[in-house]
Amino acid sequence: MNMSSLDWLEVMRKEYFQSYLRQGGSAVKFVVSAEEEVRRALPQLFSKMAKNDAYVFAKADAQYTKIHMVDRLFHKIAKQIDWDGLAHLFLSRLLVENGYQVPDDRAAFSLQAIAELNDREEMLLRRELRSWLEKAIYRDSGMCQEFRMAMVRLCLAQLDSGDPNPFLANAVKEWLCGELRLISALKDALIFQKVARHNARDMLASLVYWVRLVGKGGLILTLDISQYMVVKRSKEPDAALSYTAAAAMDAYEVLRQFVDGTDELEGCLIVVIAPEEFVKDERRGLNRYEALKLRIWDDVRDKRRQNPFAPLVRISKDSASPGVAASGFTQGTPVANGEEMLHRRAIEALRAGVPNRDAVQVLGCAQPEIEGQFRRMLENAQRSVTEGTTTKGILLDGGFGTGKSHTLEYLQELALEKNFACSRIVISKETPLYSLVKIYRASIETILIPGKRGGTLAEVAGELNFQGPQYADFYEWVHGPSGELDSRFAATLFLYERMANDRELSHRLVRFWSGDPIGVVELKRYLQACSASNPYTFEKISQTDLALQRFKFASRLMVASGYSGWILLIDEAEIIGRYSLKQRAKSYAELARWMGGLDASSYADLGYKSGLASVIALTDDFQSAILEDKGDREKIPNKLREGRSETDVLLADQAEAGMRLIESERARLVGPYDRMIEETQEKVRTIHASAYHWAPPTIPSVERLSSTRMREYVKGWITEWDLKRLAPEETVDLEVTPLRPSYMEDAEFETPAEEDQAGVGTEDVASPTELVGAQVG
């Protein structure tokens, strides 16, 4: 079944490099080969293709780069980018677009030379250029704020090349590459935090956007993960890095996030290179991490040949590839307009069985009852703040491949249309349901703000109107006597308003709201400087309680900033079946919290008066497999009550509440029926035709059985049309290997939760530099 590496590369060059990527498409491809020679050659071949087609290329090899740490990965990429060259390209284009001539020789490129060439006064030209850069970069929300500030500095530095460190350009490049020792060196550039786990993904998305903004086709990135499959540690002192199985799982989670995030990127191709162990090794391979496997596995495939467009392909140096090279496939399919690109991006997502906003837009959602229930939930969430009520959550119930993720994506678009902020959270090893601290961090990192490209809590806070009635209500609630919030929130909100002109302090305060620590000594010093009349006192509080209060504070902050509320969409909650007994108990308790199933009007009820509501997706066999067959319904409460400690008894009660909700409150997705299948097939056929400028033939559907999932139908249609388009004369004989989630307990998912119990004390002392550089986690 292996296909020729050259045949696959030719399809990638023609269909992706020459059309799809250049017009703004993105994709993640996994390439498996047993031949080390092939794996080693791929980065060089992609580098050559990128150079020929005016793309920026970067690579990372797990032998030398910890790919499972996304900040380290970004730094590795940044070290391969010609930052000055890109800034020079952008500035040159900007000048030409505004009617100016620029020197042909880059070495002669300076503000003085440009002023002389265009008969302008240098000082006035500098002022004009700053204004252009503000409009073209600083006001462009396609990039995160720190990245925009960095690019402005690099562009300005191109005008004064004689200065050894113009406009902090060297410090900016050290910051991008992870080599800056003290972040305080960039204070004048209004950059106050290092690139870390919580912002590295936004930085990478900003880089991709910047690359296209300067006129390049996009970013091509190869990631060789072969080293994660190596079990034995080398005895050589200078040998490659070695990894535990847990690190391999972390790497798969990073890759899973890339797969799910392709619709946030434009013009980006990520090629993941792996050995055969990746698909065979039970200890370190793909089978160990279902969240990634369910997104890329070729569960619907032709019996004789591979689909070169599939998210996972197996290649070798000399394999024959029937129906690819022989098809006369000479050039890529052009993308003529925005609608065609929408359809291409939708098809690309559906190939992997991962619905994105493009797929949802063209296919819609055939779940009217759930849509109606969700719309009512939005109305209740919006009223909850003013009416003092609790918003009950929704628990989606559906089998694997029946459309839970598709439905969540559709509901997210509805919420954004209703002016709600949204966070999409996939339960995983990195984000376990039982850890409120990590769920909060994931919620902030994935937040979408209506009308903006991505979003951060800083952008939400920046929209506060200190003179408006909504802010007055919010301020009164935060400072109120109810005891719902720790005094750190009241103190930081007071300082945020009073010290609004101190950009560094404002950043630090918002980072505290987002999950970072903050020093009490520093808070007291600033409060004293502001002559605060309110006697703020700070007591010790656990990280879990602090996360709980952050959820309520952030949601009310969004309402005060003019948004309707905050919706959390929690996917793949069935992974809790793989936790240990105690962690499953905590997860059931958290599920009850998110569903509004704990004591109404209580401190622990996140849906009470907050504008916050959630939807949780769970597999339809979870109750029978875990609550009944594994015995959680009886085993967990009995085990917890054996010790008779107050904490365990309370957890037992809360876990029981969560399990009762699973048994009684599920909103079941409608499974595929004949009319739904036929209508969906026609929609997919129409968008495939539009995306590739051809007429897909009428084909028989994947065999209609009660066990056949909609995912299998859709992947089957697309696979057959892809192969027919490449080789019309070849027959297609599909086979389906049903994928089902596993509920076997896995110790690798039992992430230590010490940080959840660690308290925040009254003597938390941190210097300004430490606070500025603080990282989530």
UniProtKB/TrEMBL annotation:
Residues 747-777 are annotated as: Disordered. Residues 747-757 have a biased composition (Acidic residues). This is DUF2791 family P-loop domain-containing protein. It comes from Candidatus Nitronereus thalassa. The lineage of its organism: Bacteria, Pseudomonadati, Nitrospirota, Nitrospiria, Nitrospirales.
